[in-house]
Amino acid sequence: MSFLSDNIRTIRKMHGCTQFAMAEVLGIGFRTYVRYESGERPPPPSTLVQIARLGGLSLDQLLTTKTQADDLTQEDFVSGIIKKPHVLGGSLASGRLTIKGIAEDILVCLDRQESDAVNRFKNLSAEQKEKYILDAEWTLKNKRKLSPYLKRTPKSVIKKKNIERLKNLAQCYNEKSAL
């Protein structure tokens, strides 16, 4: 084992990640990551830079000095303010981000309605939250049972509205081209 492989393992453990999660964060295959951590294979420079950033180390420290978990810092998070956020995982599409220096996930809201709903949920008591989650799970599981009671617009009505919209659009284009 070299300093590098020990340091890679220490950084992973500091973040509380599995080898699989660390491989995903670095954008490499699981087996490739395992080889880096075991010292069988050296990582390419681009991956070394990513690993050093995750540990808050310089490349020199990562490659030449055995570091302990106490030596690793999470400088981005100081007194509740994120100075330079570094996204480790998640996506806007899933509505969840993992940011270096913060133990829990951050929920991302794409619009005002979503933000209001999340804030209302946060303000509920523990009992209300549990009931809300149970109700939501039941609703998702029983969607088909509920579908007869949901108001649906018939396809023929939707088609008629689309045809009318297209006719109006065509008429507007004809009028503009005549001018």
From TrEMBL:
InterPro entries: Cro/C1-type_HTH, Lambda_DNA-bd_dom_sf. Signal peptide: none annotated. SUPFAM superfamilies: lambda repressor-like DNA-binding domains (SSF47413). Keywords: DNA-binding. GO terms for molecular function: DNA binding. Residues 8-62 form the HTH cro/C1-type domain. It holds the Pfam family HTH_3. Transmembrane segments: none annotated. This is Helix-turn-helix transcriptional regulator. It comes from Candidatus Nitrohelix vancouverensis. The lineage of its organism: Bacteria, Pseudomonadati, Nitrospinota/Tectimicrobiota group, Nitrospinota, Nitrospinia.
